[in-house]
Design goal:
Layout lengths: L10 H4 L8 E6 L5 H11 L4 E6 L2 E7 L19 H5 L17 E3 L2 H11 L5
The structure holds iron/sulfur cluster (2 copies).
The site of one iron/sulfur cluster (SF4) has 9 residues, from loops.
């Protein structure tokens, strides 16, 4: 029996955990000062928060599943779903390639960001 061909029609039902509905991102101003980085440290100290920079700037990445994902992975409010969800194209998405591949910087923990701050600012403390 041949391998199931993944198409844009069946891709979302094959996508374990509905990847694109399991997090949210929020752009933040490009951090420059120590104070800016202290704010990011405060944010990343919280569970489920990561920070990345890509060609569009700096973002918080918050792992938190949308309340409307149904057991079979479908959207429970499909007809009324927010614009961001409507505009997300599954032609080439997180199913095909991890978003991380396009990150210039990616901090997954407070400790990683602190290490970066200490390198970036000669006098951090
Ligand atoms: S759009 Fe992509 S990441 Fe989102 S549920 Fe469908 S296959 Fe998964
Ligand atoms: S509203 Fe629907 S499409 Fe949007 S994140 Fe939630 S489950 Fe996914």
């Amino acid at each position: 029996m041949g391998k199931l061909k993944v198409t844009t029609e069946n891709k979302c039902t094959l996508c374990e955990g509905s990847k694109c509905c399991s997090y949210l991102t929020q752009q933040v101003d490009t951090p420059r000062s120590k104070e800016d980085f202290h704010t990011l440290l405060w944010q990343i100290a919280h569970q489920g928060v990561e920070i990345y920079q890509d060609e569009d700037g700096w973002f918080l990445l918050i792992s938190n599943r949308c309340q409307f994902i149904e057991k079979d992975g479908r959207c429970g409010i499909y007809e009324q779903r927010p614009t961001v969800c409507r505009e997300h194209d599954n032609e080439w998405c997180e199913y095909d390639e991890p978003a991380e591949q396009h990150f210039k910087r990616h901090f997954t923990s407070y400790q990683q960001l602190l290490k970066y701050c200490k390198k970036r600012f000669k006098k951090w403390n």
